[in-house]
Specification:
The complex is a heterotrimer of chains A (about 325), B (about 325) and C (about 375). With about 325 residues, chain A is mainly α. Chain A contains 12 helices and no strands. Chain B is α/β, with parallel strands linked by helices and about 325 residues long. Chain B folds into 2 domains: about 190 residues, P-loop containing nucleotide triphosphate hydrolases (Rossmann fold, 3-Layer(aba) Sandwich), CATH 3.40.50.300; about 70 residues, no CATH class. In chain B, the strands form 2 sheets. In chain B, strands 6-7-8-3-9-10-12-11 form an 8-stranded mixed beta sheet, sandwiched between helices. In chain B, helix 6 links the parallel strand 7 and strand 8. Chain B is globular. Chain B starts with a strand and ends in a 22-residue tail after the last strand. Chain C contains 15 helices and 12 strands. Chain C has an 8-stranded mixed beta sheet, sandwiched between helices. Classes of the chains: A mainly alpha (about 325), B alpha/beta (about 325), C alpha/beta (about 375). Chains in contact: A-B, A-C, B-C. Chains A and C meet through helix 1, helix 8 and helix 9 of A and helix 4, helix 5, helix 7 and helix 8 of C.
Chain lengths: ~325, ~325, ~375
């Protein structure tokens, strides 16, 4: 004897008996979407503020960006020129006039470091931009289309992946002359494969999600699927990846400059270190010439990493909700 | 003497917003050789109970109440005794058991592991026993040497059952053991479980959301909703003559093929099972209950007796309260 | 639009002659992978014949259940019907025309409901955006009576039982329950005013007490809008609840098809009988249960593909009737054994006096 099937009204989840009147004139879907995105960004920011590590990283990074932008106001560019009257006695430890001491040409190390911020950060950011654009595009195409496109692109990626960083840099520097454009080029060329692989893996996983299938069943074109469904869901990954790549790029630039492959006429932290080591500063005990640029590199990289961690925590989204 | 006696079990998970009660006062009694089915939907707390019995819940979970296994208090056991008891007196076939197998270890070794850990036998003897266990669950003994990926879903489930029986427990807790299987394989596994239960005199706690499966295997049935038991009693009575409106709705979701009553008449409850963080007041079922009346949002019913051994938590059963004129008390006739 | 507002029964009478959807001899195969070693020695990749000759028809306002275990090819058939899986052979005709021509227009008329409502919604899109997606893809800015996009979305959500619809516009999928998400998916399908729905296990991922409401919704849509619905399911109880006709699939073929009452209470094919036997509480576990696992579409047995597991072969009933060699050696197609009720079984055909191998009777259903 089975129980009678209970027959109930198909009640919607909302027990509300009346339709809430919209508080403002009806907005177009685009406006709704934009408002929602703004609200979402505010929410992310609010979450981010709670993350101590992320805030610390952001503050440090902010400081460096400030220095990079306002370098001319903080230290006159003339201080980079050894013939400038502002130069002082050579290799002098820190004093009031020269808070970080002077180098072997009498230039203030503080001035050098401040101006070095500009080049180091610029090179880091530009090469990262190149890496991300190339890497994401290739990763997207390879992952989404598969088949021969994937094979060709991934083999190309593998080829670039095994390009040795340093020998390539040296060869190119020799061929093209040492300059920061070379540095940017080298870093871009050797970093994009890693990004491409990561993006491709994520795209492969997203491609099979039911909501992508559903959009296809609705009749969506490839373009719609990629721009509306795949890219936004790869977005957080791209963002977090970018942050870490900038750190690596800045470090790479410093390395290359330190090895003498950067532009000797422009100052970056790496070139400062190159000069100081070249003049035997660590062994002569001229610590003020070595530590500031080194510390700057460490701090910037650290700040990016901390921001990256914080973003990871936050952008790993609705899994945390319930 | 009951094998398992649970009284007033309360389990709360820690969350950012404070502890959330997944189980809110549950009593369970299983005698030797008895099979109790525990049914309910998502969020009702049934899987939590499985973990609580052997203290396998994540650290930070608060567990209060009493759990007596063969008269011994599980919650008060020292870690050593607890480890000894785990698997030898009570074992568990987990939900998603098929994924509980180590993919890089042969299945025979994994079963052996259980025996050897409890020092019930040396390795060689254990291997012989494993062969016997596999036979018992209907697999050829040569499968000892297979890796999990070489087995089908149904076969992996049988391995899990063999593993649960490895140390000859007196109580087996099966948490959704047939959920991911095809109907045919599910029937095979259920038949196996029933045979094993009879042969070995096992007591079983069978946890699932599929009520129709429980009818096959269980002597008694307990239905859970929002962390409490809302009806319990003899399996046939609870399923075919359910008294609690939730049980009736749940049972109606498993139609009998061939009965015209169910043709083109799907029935379900409005709304959704409540989240533990957000329980309705009074009787937690009242927002979805077709028979709710004024008292329901205000009074939290305990379990009222329907007949000896059969109880349900519904205010309509409370003989002390005045019954509304003309109200039909479900299960009691006109 | 006025035609569509007629009740389903009237619609069915009108279209008695012309089925809405017709599938003819559909075949879909998947190539497996070969290991490196095996590939080097020249072994070919195993071919999985997921769908191996399926024909069916669906009329306007009809609910057809495609039932079977995993690996039988029902989901692949549904996906092929949606154009998501290219067929190797065979034709899919919608309103008489092959779907490969004008696929985009076809996709406006036929929508799919997915098994996993959570996965089927983009977690970064609001409910409004998810439902409006279909409209945007097909660049529909206004309804046929001048309705705005917002009104169309609200109407679809409302029809799917989410009331008041505006309340849900700005929600995200993770803020809703499983049942609500499925309603959103259904709304997303309804917004384009389709003629046919393909529902792949529409309720199996939902809690048992919620399923009834979704099924009731589907029936209501059929009654109110005259939709034709193809439901893919492994649950015969579901078929009993909502289907007009049932087609049982095994290893890529339909082995029995007919009105739900007939197929589910007077089954002809031994596989259908076995499936019905194992539906719980049909009579206790002491009834015969098929041994073995659901079969492998890469290794299809010769003859009747069910014969290795067939209880009638094992018990000798086939031999007694003299059809056993045919079971083992002669592949067969659906034979109409009772009016509107076909099965692919030598023994059943013999028992009902239709022993001769007949040409395939188009399954009228």
């Amino acid at each position: 004897m089975r129980p009678q099937p209970t027959s109930t009204e198909p009640l919607a989840a909302a027990p509300a008996a009346h339709i809430e009147a919209p508080k403002e004139p009806p907005r177009t879907p685009k406006q709704i979407a934009r408002a929602r995105r703004k609200a979402a960004a505010k929410r992310v920011w609010r979450e981010y503020r709670k993350n101590k590590m992320g805030m610390a990283g952001l503050i440090i990074l902010g400081l460096f960006i400030f220095v990079a932008i306002f370098a001319p106001l903080l230290a006159s560019s003339c201080g980079l020129d050894p013939t400038c009257p502002s130069t002082g006695p050579q290799l002098q430890p820190p004093t009031l006039k020269y808070p970080l001491g002077t180098d072997d040409l009498g230039r203030s190390v503080l001035t050098l470091t401040i101006w070095g911020t500009r080049i180091s950060m610029t090179v880091g950011l530009v090469s990262t931009a190149i890496t991300m654009v190339i890497g994401t595009t290739i990763g997207l195409i390879a992952g989404y289309y598969g088949a021969w496109r994937e094979t060709v692109l991934m083999r190309m990626t593998d080829w670039f992946l095994v390009l040795p960083f340093l020998p390539l840099a040296i060869v190119l520097a020799t061929l093209l002359g040492p300059s920061f454009y070379t540095v940017i080029f080298v870093i871009g060329i050797t970093s994009w494969p890693a990004t491409a692989r990561v993006i491709r893996a994520q795209v492969l996983s997203l491609k099979t999600r039911p909501y992508v299938e559903r959009a296809r069943a609705l009749g969506a074109s490839d373009w719609h699927l990629v721009t509306r469904h795949i890219l936004p869901n790869v977005g957080p990954l791209i963002f977090a990846n970018t942050v870490l790549i900038v750190a690596v790029a800045i470090l790479s630039e410093s390395t290359l400059s330190f090895l003498g492959l950067g532009d000797p006429l422009h100052t970056s932290w790496g070139t400062i270190l190159e000069n100081s080591f070249g003049a035997g500063a660590p062994f002569a005990g001229n610590w003020w010439w070595v530590i500031p640029p080194g510390l700057a590199i460490v701090l910037v990289v650290l700040s990016f990493t901390m921001i990256g961690y914080a973003l990871d925590d936050i952008l790993n989204p609705k899994l945390r909700a319930r | 003497m009951s094998l398992l006696s649970v009284r007033d079990l309360v389990v709360s998970y820690p969350t950012q917003g404070g502890p959330v009660p997944a189980v809110r006062g549950v009593d369970i009694e299983i005698g030797t050789g008895e099979v109790l089915g525990l049914a309910g939907e998502s969020g009702c707390g049934k899987s939590t109970i499985a973990g609580a019995l052997l203290r396998l819940l994540p650290t930070g979970t608060e567990v209060t109440g009493s759990i007596l296994l063969n008269g011994e208090d599980v919650l008060g056991m020292k870690p050593r005794r607890l480890r000894a008891v785990r698997w030898t007196e009570t074992s568990i076939v987990f939900q998603g058991a098929m994924h509980a197998l180590n993919p890089v270890q042969r299945v025979g070794e994994q079963i052996e592991e259980a025996i050897v850990i409890h020092q019930q036998a040396g390795q060689r003897e254990a291997r012989v026993r494993v062969g016997g266990l596999l036979e018992q669950v209907g697999l050829p003994p040569r499968r000892i040497r297979d890796y999990p990926h070489e087995l089908s879903g149904g076969q992996k489930q049988r391995v899990m059952i063999a593993m649960a029986l490895a140390c000859s427990p007196s109580l087996v807790v099966a948490d959704e053991p047939t959920t991911a299987l095809d109907v045919m394989v599910q029937a095979q596994v259920l038949k196996l479980l029933k045979e094993l239960q009879r042969e070995l005199g096992l007591a079983m706690l069978f946890i699932t959301h599929d009520l129709s499966v429980l009818i096959e295997v269980c002597d008694r049935l307990a239905i859970m909703y929002a962390g409490r038991i809302v009806e319990e009693g003899p399996a046939q009575s609870v399923f075919y003559e359910s008294v609690h409106p939730y049980t009736r709705a749940l049972a109606a979701a498993f139609p009998a093929i061939g009965e015209g009553r169910f043709r083109k008449a799907p029935s379900g409850l409005p709304g959704d099972p409540p989240y533990p963080q957000d329980l309705p007041t009074g009787c937690t079922f009242h927002p979805r209950c077709p028979l709710a009346f004024e008292a329901c949002p205000h009074i939290d019913p305990g379990l009222f007796e329907v007949s000896p051994g059969w109880r349900a938590a519904c205010l309509l059963l409370d003989s002390a309260k005045p019954v509304l004129e003309g109200a039909r008390i479900p299960g009691r006739g006109p | 639009m006025s035609e569509r507002t007629r009740p389903a029964e009237q619609a069915m009478d009108l279209n008695e002659a012309a089925p809405l959807l017709e599938v003819r001899d559909l075949e879909v195969t998947f190539a497996g992978r070969v290991g490196l070693g095996a590939g080097l020695v020249g072994r070919k990749a195993t071919v999985s014949r997921a769908v191996d000759g399926v024909s069916l028809q669906l009329r306007q306002g009809e609910v057809l259940a495609l039932a079977g275990e995993s690996g039988c090819g029902k989901t692949t058939t549904a996906r092929a019907i949606m154009g998501l899986e290219p067929p190797r052979e065979g034709q899919i005709l919608f309103q008489g025309k092959p779907i490969t021509k004008r696929l985009r227009a076809y996709r406006r008329k036929v929508q799919m409901i997915f098994q996993d409502p959570t996965g089927a919604l983009n977690p970064r899109q609001t409910i409004y955006e998810s439902v409006a997606e279909g409209l945007r893809i097909h660049r529909i800015h206004h309804g046929p009576n001048g309705e705005t996009e917002q009104e169309l979305v609200a109407r679809a959500l409302s029809r799917a039982g989410m009331r008041p619809p505006e309340r849900f516009f700005l929600n995200y999928p993770h803020e809703l329950s499983g049942g609500q998400r499925q309603r959103v998916v259904i709304a997303g399908a309804l917004v384009l005013d389709p003629v046919m729905l393909v529902a792949d296990e529409p309720v199996s991922n939902l809690d048992a007490s919620v399923r009834g409401e979704i099924l009731r919704l589907l029936l209501q849509l059929r009654d109110d809008l005259g939709l034709a619905i193809l439901v893919v399911t492994h649950d015969l109880g579901l078929a009993w609840t909502i289907a007009d006709r049932v087609a049982v699939m095994y290893l890529g073929r339909i082995v029995e098809i007919g009105p739900a009452e007939d197929v589910l209470t007077k089954p002809l094919h031994p596989y259908t009988k076995a499936l019905l036997n194992v539906v719980p509480e049909a009579g206790g576990l002491d009834r015969p249960i098929l041994t073995g696992e659901p079969p492998d579409p890469t290794r299809i047995p010769p003859g009747c593909r069910f014969h290795p597991r067939c209880p009638d072969v094992a018990s000798g009933a086939a031999r007694a009737a003299g059809v056993e060699e045919r079971c083992r050696g002669e592949d067969l197609v659906l034979l109409e054994l009772r009016p509107g009720h076909s099965a692919a079984c030598h023994l059943a055909a013999f028992a009902l006096g239709k022993g001769q191998a007949a040409t395939m009777a188009p399954p009228q259903g």
